[in-house]
Amino acid sequence: MKLSLFLIIVVMMASCSPTSDKKLQQDVKIGLSILDSTINVSVTDGVVTLSGEVEDEAVKNASESSIEEVKGVKSVINDLRIKPALPDDDFSARPDTEIKEYVNAAFAANNIQGVTTTVQSGEVVLTG
Protein backbone atom coordinates (compact mmCIF):
# COMPACT_ATOMS: atom_id res chain seq x y z
CA MET A 1 0.00 0.00 0.00
CA LYS A 2 2.75 2.43 0.96
CA LEU A 3 4.68 1.64 -2.22
CA SER A 4 1.62 2.17 -4.43
CA LEU A 5 0.83 5.49 -2.78
CA PHE A 6 4.47 6.50 -3.10
CA LEU A 7 4.53 5.70 -6.82
CA ILE A 8 1.37 7.69 -7.47
CA ILE A 9 2.65 10.76 -5.61
CA VAL A 10 6.10 10.76 -7.20
CA VAL A 11 4.84 10.21 -10.73
CA MET A 12 2.19 12.92 -10.36
CA MET A 13 4.65 15.43 -8.93
CA ALA A 14 7.46 14.77 -11.36
CA SER A 15 5.50 14.33 -14.58
CA CYS A 16 4.15 17.86 -14.81
CA SER A 17 7.10 19.67 -16.41
CA PRO A 18 10.85 19.53 -16.96
CA THR A 19 12.50 19.63 -13.58
CA SER A 20 15.60 21.21 -12.18
CA ASP A 21 17.85 19.14 -9.93
CA LYS A 22 16.53 21.00 -6.89
CA LYS A 23 12.89 20.40 -7.82
CA LEU A 24 13.62 16.77 -8.67
CA GLN A 25 15.34 16.33 -5.31
CA GLN A 26 12.33 17.80 -3.47
CA ASP A 27 9.88 15.61 -5.38
CA VAL A 28 11.87 12.44 -4.76
CA LYS A 29 12.32 13.26 -1.05
CA ILE A 30 8.59 13.81 -0.60
CA GLY A 31 7.80 10.53 -2.30
CA LEU A 32 10.46 8.58 -0.44
CA SER A 33 9.25 9.91 2.90
CA ILE A 34 6.34 7.47 2.63
CA LEU A 35 8.80 4.55 2.56
CA ASP A 36 11.46 5.97 4.89
CA SER A 37 11.82 9.64 5.82
CA THR A 38 15.49 9.21 6.76
CA ILE A 39 16.70 8.51 3.22
CA ASN A 40 19.08 11.19 1.96
CA VAL A 41 18.61 12.32 -1.63
CA SER A 42 20.99 14.31 -3.80
CA VAL A 43 20.61 15.10 -7.49
CA THR A 44 23.25 16.19 -9.99
CA ASP A 45 22.33 16.58 -13.65
CA GLY A 46 19.32 14.29 -13.20
CA VAL A 47 21.33 11.54 -11.49
CA VAL A 48 19.69 10.74 -8.15
CA THR A 49 21.88 9.40 -5.33
CA LEU A 50 20.19 7.71 -2.37
CA SER A 51 22.12 7.33 0.87
CA GLY A 52 21.52 6.45 4.50
CA GLU A 53 20.28 3.36 6.31
CA VAL A 54 16.99 1.55 5.76
CA GLU A 55 15.32 -1.30 7.63
CA ASP A 56 15.60 -4.01 5.00
CA GLU A 57 16.38 -5.00 1.41
CA ALA A 58 12.75 -4.50 0.35
CA VAL A 59 12.82 -0.79 1.26
CA LYS A 60 16.22 -0.39 -0.41
CA ASN A 61 15.01 -1.96 -3.65
CA ALA A 62 11.62 -0.22 -3.62
CA SER A 63 13.31 3.15 -3.10
CA GLU A 64 15.43 2.73 -6.19
CA SER A 65 12.95 1.08 -8.52
CA SER A 66 10.14 3.49 -7.73
CA ILE A 67 12.07 6.62 -8.69
CA GLU A 68 13.69 5.22 -11.84
CA GLU A 69 10.51 6.02 -13.78
CA VAL A 70 10.16 9.59 -12.52
CA LYS A 71 10.38 12.16 -15.29
CA GLY A 72 13.76 13.89 -15.17
CA VAL A 73 15.60 11.02 -13.47
CA LYS A 74 18.42 9.89 -15.74
CA SER A 75 19.75 7.23 -13.38
CA VAL A 76 19.80 6.22 -9.73
CA ILE A 77 22.83 5.51 -7.58
CA ASN A 78 21.61 3.45 -4.65
CA ASP A 79 24.09 3.86 -1.78
CA LEU A 80 21.51 2.83 0.82
CA ARG A 81 22.75 0.49 3.53
CA ILE A 82 20.68 -2.05 5.44
CA LYS A 83 20.61 -1.37 9.19
CA PRO A 84 22.43 -4.15 10.99
CA ALA A 85 20.15 -6.58 12.76
CA LEU A 86 20.31 -6.47 16.51
CA PRO A 87 20.98 -9.75 18.26
CA ASP A 88 17.97 -11.42 19.81
CA ASP A 89 19.79 -11.68 23.12
CA ASP A 90 19.18 -9.08 25.81
CA PHE A 91 22.73 -8.09 26.74
CA SER A 92 21.60 -5.58 29.35
CA ALA A 93 20.91 -8.43 31.76
CA ARG A 94 24.32 -10.05 31.28
CA PRO A 95 27.33 -9.48 33.52
CA ASP A 96 30.11 -7.25 32.18
CA THR A 97 32.57 -10.15 32.00
CA GLU A 98 30.22 -12.14 29.77
CA ILE A 99 29.66 -9.18 27.45
CA LYS A 100 33.43 -8.66 27.20
CA GLU A 101 33.96 -12.34 26.34
CA TYR A 102 31.27 -12.16 23.66
CA VAL A 103 32.82 -9.06 22.05
CA ASN A 104 36.34 -10.50 22.18
CA ALA A 105 35.11 -13.77 20.65
CA ALA A 106 33.55 -11.82 17.77
CA PHE A 107 36.85 -10.04 17.16
CA ALA A 108 38.74 -13.33 17.24
CA ALA A 109 36.27 -14.99 14.85
CA ASN A 110 36.89 -12.18 12.35
CA ASN A 111 40.68 -12.09 12.84
CA ILE A 112 40.56 -8.57 14.31
CA GLN A 113 43.53 -7.81 16.52
CA GLY A 114 44.77 -4.82 18.48
CA VAL A 115 41.42 -3.82 19.97
CA THR A 116 41.02 -3.62 23.73
CA THR A 117 37.56 -4.15 25.14
CA THR A 118 36.41 -2.70 28.44
CA VAL A 119 32.89 -3.11 29.79
CA GLN A 120 31.43 -1.21 32.70
CA SER A 121 27.76 -1.38 33.69
CA GLY A 122 26.89 -2.88 30.31
CA GLU A 123 28.64 -0.12 28.33
CA VAL A 124 31.29 -1.37 25.91
CA VAL A 125 34.32 0.79 25.12
CA LEU A 126 36.69 -0.27 22.33
CA THR A 127 40.18 1.20 22.01
CA GLY A 128 43.02 0.48 19.69
In short:
By secondary structure, the chain is an alpha+beta fold. Helix content is 41%, strand content 24%.
Percent helix among the residues?
A: 40-55%
pLDDT averaged over residues: 83
Largest sheet: 3 strands, mixed
Name the helix and strand elements from N-terminus to C-terminus, one letter apiece.
HHEEHEHEE
Which strand order does the major sheet show?
1-2-3
User: What is the SS-derived class?
Assistant: alpha+beta
* Multimerization status: single chain
Overall 3D geometry? elongated
What percent strand?
15-25%
Low-confidence stretches: none
Number of helices: 4
How many β-strands, per DSSP?
A: 5
What integer value in Å does the Rg equal? 21 Å
Amino- and carboxy-terminal Cα gap: 47 Å
Structure description:
- Helix content is 41%, strand content 24%.
- The chain has four helices and five strands, in the order H-H-E-E-H-E-H-E-E.
- The protein has helices spanning 2-14, 21-35, 57-67, 96-109; strands spanning 40-44, 47-54, 75-82, 116-120, 123-127.
- The strands form two sheets. It has a three-stranded mixed β-sheet.
- It is elongated and about 60 Å long.
- The protein starts with a helix and ends with a strand.
